[in-house]
Write a structure and sequence with these properties.
With 375 residues, this protein is of the alpha/beta class. The protein folds into two domains: 114 residues, Aspartate Aminotransferase, domain 1 (Alpha-Beta Complex), CATH 3.90.1150.10; 220 residues, Aspartate Aminotransferase, domain 2 (3-Layer(aba) Sandwich), CATH 3.40.640.10. 41% of the residues lie in helices and 14% in strands. It has 14 helices and twelve strands. The strands form three sheets. Strands 2-8-7-6-5-3-4 form a seven-stranded mixed β-sheet, with helices on both faces. A three-stranded antiparallel β-sheet has the order 9-12-11. Helix 3 packs parallel to helix 11. It is globular.
Amino acid sequence: MELPVKLRQKLADRAQLGTLRRLRTTAASIDFCSNDYLGLARSGKLRAGLESELQQYNHLPLGATGSRLLSGNSTLAEELETSIASFHAAPAALLFNSGFAANTGFFSALPQRGDTILYDEASHASIKDGIRLNFARAYSFRHNSPEDLRNKFRHATGEVYVAVESLYSMDGDFAPLNELAEICAEKGAYLVVDEAHTNGLYGPRGAGLVPELNLTDKVFARIMTFGKALGGHGAAVVGSEALRQYLINFSRPFIYTTALPLHALLSIKTAYTLLPHLDSERARIHALAKYLKKVLGQLPGISVNSADSPIQWLQAPDVAALKLISQNLLAGGLDARPVYPPTVPAGKERLRLIVHAFNTESEIEKLAAVIANVR
């Protein structure tokens, strides 16, 4: 049966703009694209630890067999949640199958009719989709603008939830968490921080940016994702025990989803065992981030991220030029992907560049040389 005409037209429109998405694999050997910041996804230590854990838990089924509220719960899952909560200096944690599920599960369940959500306009799609699923009023505020957030409180009714990311995945900049926490404390609002891109990279033992800034007591909930620096899959919402119980009872993505399988749980457990011992890898990433920013900043006409972040980006005059840069990088064995609307606003298409603990200065120099030659 054919796709409806109006949907075929939407695909044709994207193809005409040059922004039609396609799945592809890559043979490029130098990674400036993935979220595997610490290299754990390719780590022999993670693999060996996971295999050892699998041997210890070989009495459990590989699949969860059902949702947590039916047959899918286990002592392993509950012990892992307790361990994750302790690691992140929180009273409790609840596992979700992905960061997307955690955000939609949180924001669709917590705010009620008559409440208000104020969210950074650059927030992840999962936050925005969760907001669309509830009956609260929602207003965006200008990206990383405490002033505009304060201004938006004039619309607020009921309980107010403020949603931000600690490190934004497209812009590579950090939320002004200290100022945001002050405003929320002053207004009696609930601050919710998505730590997807800081979990494992910042804070004591890699516990995140919120603990690094000593804000754990001022943040209502954190979303800790495992598919990036931890090299696995899944996520957890960390916060109070009452929050955990509320999500168990009212979060539909938690209630109606088959639980994470054994392999995923043990991968998360092993990654958290390794995180405290990766200080040198974290320092390496931060040093390479500064070096990438420096090298890109030396290219004429290139704007760079002002933050010393592992996420950098560059813009080209148009989509065709952006594709040409990406193709030339791929031909040179460098994997860096362009990002198109609607992931970023129209006119803000960019090449996103991510540094990892396993990258080298010479690889960064090669990256810059290819970009300079294309331009």
